Amino acid sequence: MTAKISFRNVTKTYAVAGQAPFNAIEDFNLDVADGEFVTVVGPSGCGKSTALNVAAGLVRPSSGGITVDGARVEGPGPERGVIFQQYALFPWLTVRQNVEFGLRIAGHRRDERRRIADHFIDLVGLTDFAGALPKTLSGGMKQRCAIARAYAVNPKILLMDEPFGALDALTRVQLQDQLLAMWSRERRTVVFITHDVDEAVYLANRVVVMAARPGRLHRVVDVDLPFPRTEDIRLSAAFAALRNEVWRSVYHPALN
Ligand SMILES: Nc1ncnc2c1ncn2[C@@H]1O[C@H](COP(=O)(O)OP(=O)(O)OP(=O)(O)O)[C@@H](O)[C@H]1O
After folding, report:
1. Global model pTM greater than 0.90
2. The ABC transporter domain covers which part of the protein (predicted)?
């Protein structure tokens, strides 16, 4: 496997005044292949966001390191798009202007910006809302806009931290399908954090299960379900078996 992203012995130590230093993640090793969809689950505080933020270049590891295409990550970069739970749209810009924003920074011409933005706005199903301001959109629509914006600047890697965590169950399922449809069309490498074991299994090629105190990689579960993922797969016995396996690893790590 040629690794797109490699975590090598990554440890992040936090020293909070008045408390002993502790490792938010400890000796974390993981290779993510080009075009792979990896989900990360684990109990609250096990270091999922810390690991993702190290990959994003937003947090510097205390020891160890991370490479993208073999080059050491020293900070944020345009080849890594980050999507958080809070949509982080510019409230004074329309959907289209939000999606065009990164393209403007990257120096794309006006007509090109428009063409690329409209392509991704269409892919996420927001064409009728291209001229709308974020405050007039539902949570699911805002997150679709954030996904279109992240995709538009053509990052090779998408780092997603609980992107659907604030959404209702039905919207969440719809966005999972939309994200997978985009992933199969515009293949990127995705690392996706979630608290939802079903979501983790449904989306992924592999599920990374982390454990807490100290935050560390507990095990990796291969998801050998076919793509495209469908409702039939979601309701299948094979899906249930994988979900149960991941669930046990998260909630009973000593046994699994
Ligand atoms: N800047 C910081 N300073 C001190 N401690 C921090 C800092 N950032 C995170 N931590 C601690 O590091 C640990 C891991 O946090 P992190 O947010 O990575 O976990 P998580 O698995 O993403 O949690 P959750 O699922 O609740 O979002 C937690 O104990 C957290 O309190």
Report:
1. yes
2. 5-237
Is the ipTM here above 0.95? yes
Question: Is the distance from the beta carbon of residue 44 to the nearest atom of ligand 1 less than 6 Å?
Answer: yes
Residue bearing the CA closest to ligand 1, atom 24:
44
Is the Cβ–Cβ distance between 68 and 80 less than 8 Å?
Answer: yes
CA distances in angstroms from 121 to 16, 151, 182, listed in the order given: 43, 10, 12
Q: For residue 32, how many other CB atoms are within 10 A of its CB? A: 23
- Tokens 């053509």 belong to residue: 154
Alpha helices in the chain (DSSP H): 48-56, 95-105, 110-123, 139-152, 169-185, 197-203, 231-234, 237-251
Q: Identify the CA nearest to 185 among candidates 129, 233, 239, 227.
A: 227
Could you report the per-residue pLDDT of 124-168, keeping only the tens digit for each?
889 999 999 999 999 889 988 998 898 888 899 999 999 888 888
Cβ neighbour number for residue 122 with a 10 Å cutoff: 12
Domains of the chain: 1-79+157-164+187-255 (3.40.50.300), 85-154 (no CATH)
Please tell me the distance between residue 242's alpha carbon and the centre of ligand 1 in angstroms. Answer: 27
